[in-house]
Structure formats: structure tokens, C-alpha cells
Amino acid sequence: MKPNVPEKLYLLAKALPCPLYIVGGAVRDALAELPAAEDWDLAAPTDADEVCAAAARAGMTVNAVYRNTGTVNLSDGKRKYEFTSFRTDFYRGGEHAPMRVRFTDDIEEDAKRRDFRCNAVYFDVAAEQFCDPLGGTEDIRARIMRTTREAGEVFSEDGLRLMRLARLSAQLGFAPDENCLAGAVENAEKIRKIAAERIFAELTLLLHADEKYGRPRAQYEGLKILDETRVLDEILPELAAGRGMRQRSDFHAHDVLEHSLRACGYADKKVRLSALLHDIGKPYCMRTNGKYHGHDAEGMRIGRTVLERLKAPKKQAETVVRLIGTHMYDLDGRARESKIRAFIQKNHDIYPLILLVKQADYSACKDDLSVCPTLLKWADIYRKMQSEGVPFSLKELKIGGNDLADILPPQKRGKVLAALLAECAYDGRKNDKNYLMAQAARLAAKEE
After folding, report:
1. Distance between CA atoms of 267 and 207, rounded to whole angstroms?
2. Considering only CA atoms, which of 422, 397, 399, 415 is closest in space to residue 341?
3. How far apart are CA 257 and CA 252, in angstroms?
4. Spatial contact of 31 and 129, defined as CB atoms under 8 Å apart
5. Does 14 score more than 80 pLDDT?
6. Where is the Poly A polymerase head domain (predicted)?
7. Has this prediction a pTM greater than 0.85?
8. Sequence-ordered list of residues with C-beta below 8 angstroms from that of 314, at least 6 positions apart, any chain
């Protein structure tokens, strides 16, 4: 199957004095008969200035030019394209950006600078023909990941390729060959040369690998590659420490690490990172105390450190940390209804996410996809709270700070309102203005 080439690219190809090629994901996905890629990578044996001139003649917009790398960012009003001149890259010990480049007219040289053979198949726009200098078409048909050159060399150049191997393999369902895996293992420490923000971005894409082409549990496959290549030990050593750490067989069929990877595999897309890290406190607790007790609290501390190191967005990190800290609540289903009501109200802003993490945790214990029993119990309690009109936030309370102006100074109103909100968790009928004002007066008298 050929790529569905936009009309503007035909005009751009016609305006250039040399062949214009589409390369990378768009060509790979067309050959694999996958949905069309959203990103368009272009290449040709010409320089950036020539492409800018041709783009103007083709009615395209030049958004950015980087002459030192031969890169031009283009758009046609609907799509964005990235053009790069044929070149060879030279790296500095695993850093993602090449330290220098050498331009070339040789398509094979350009192909060999790329990471995987499946990404090094070209499509000549004007001639409407494929050009495959390295045999990438064969890999796509066989659904195999192989590097464009000796694997150790490819991974030693750019450490980010270690993450791309896991992510692309998961998204595409392509299996890395033995040489590819061996080269990744040999160079796993090169990921240390990559900025934390880039690692976190790739990890996020990997955790949502199933969404790219609709491959169920693809994120689990990608995590297993990170585990097998030991790249996981470099980016998440606190998680990898659970490898081989046994758990009670009556509750768990897997060790701590495998359980965490499977939890992510079973998790809803909203809580993949939280599911992956939910037990990150277990290895520390076992090493320190010889048991897993308290791993939720320790997990919050460790999780916060991990997410700060990875430069995760602060709001996302705080939510993940809270989910780590709440995932064990009422694990045995013995918590009293009054306690559960208070818990739901206190955590109402993330309550749906807590349910998703607990379900993923439950499913990963013994690969049981049935509904977690605790969630069934909580669902009944939550329905009762809703039917009673329980307020879940101060905004839903029938009185506010202005109502307390005559009986409390401003600095004490928040504490009283919080106490009244908590009281209503046990009986929603108490969310009545007259009752709340009477209770507020009583509490105000105690404050005097």
C-alpha cells in the first residue's frame, strides 16, 4: 500500500530539481497497512534554502529553518512536515542531538543514520515508487525491529533510541531481533545522557502505546522490553528493585515488578503511570523492614522523588502521589461504612481515579479481570451518599463563609466549614442551612 500523499507534496516535489522522498513513519505505516501516521518526514539530496524556495513556489509555508542540520519545518495549512537534507550524523557518547552532520547525496548513507530499518524506507513522491536501501520492507512484512547498522553502534550514538525501541515495538507489535536486544542491553546506561524531560515524554508515549494503533495492552509489551534491556533499571531503579521480589502466593501470582508492569497493562489510560508506580514503596519496605507493611506511605515519598527526577508536570505528579497513597485503603473490605464515607468525601476530586487504580491492582494480582469486590461495596455506599445529597466539597455545602460573618472572624471560618462538611459525609440530610447554622454557632462558641 502506498502513502496517501497530500496534493501539496506533489507540488513541492515538482518544484525541486531532485527527487523528494517521504520517509519514516508515514511510509512504514502504509506498508504495514496501519492507519496513516500524523507526522510527515521528508528528505531529499538538497539543502534547506532550495527547499524553502520550492515551498514558496508550491504555496507552502516555511515555519522554521535550521541550516546547520538541513532541517525545514513546513505546513500546507492542514498538515505539518519536517524536511531534512540527506546527511550523516556524528554523536557525542549517547547524547540525543548530533554534535555535527555531514551532508550527502547518497540515500543509503542517509538511511544508515536512522535508528531502525523499518523507519528507513523511502517513497519517491514524483515517481510514486518505494526506495528501500537497507531492506526495511522485509522487516515491516516480518514485523521485526532491526537496527540500520550494528545494534551496539546505533544505540551507543543516541540513548533515546533505547526508549524508542520499546515504544515503537509496543505501538507496532514488531518484535526486536536478538541483535537489537543485545545492543540495547550493552548500551542501557546511555539513557543517562538523555534529558529527563525527553525520557518522561517517551515513557508517556509508551504507557499509551495501545492507543496508537489499537493494540490491547501494548503498553505492557513496551515495559517488558524496558525490563529485558535493563533500561528500566536506569530510568526507574526504584521500580526495577522489585524484580524477583516474591509476594504472598495466596494473593499474588507475580513478583513485585511483574505485578506493577501488569497493573499498568490492565489499567485505564487515565491512570497508567499511577498503576505502574502504585507499589514502588514495596522494595524499600522489604529491604528496610523485611515486610511490605507501610509501602503505600513510603511509596508516596519515593514516588514524589521519582516524578521530580523525571520532571513530570507538577499537577500530574501530585495526583499520582495521592493515588499511590490511597490504593491500599479498605484492601480487605473491612472498613466501616462511616470511614468509607469520610474517605470518599475527602478524596472526591480523584475518587474515579482511585477506583481505576484499585481495579488495575486487583486484576494484576492473579490476572483476574472481574470487578474488584471492594469497588462493588464502595459503589453501594457512594450511591447512598448521592441519594442523601451528601456534599462532596465546600461548594456543595448549604452555607458558606459569608453566612458565618456574624459569629466567626474570617480566619476561623474555614475550619468550621470543613468540620461541617465532614459531618455531612455521615448523613447527607444534615446538609440543611438551619441545621448547619446551629452547628456552626455551637462550634463558634467552642472557639471562644
Report:
1. 10
2. 422
3. 12
4. no
5. yes
6. 20-146
7. yes
8. none
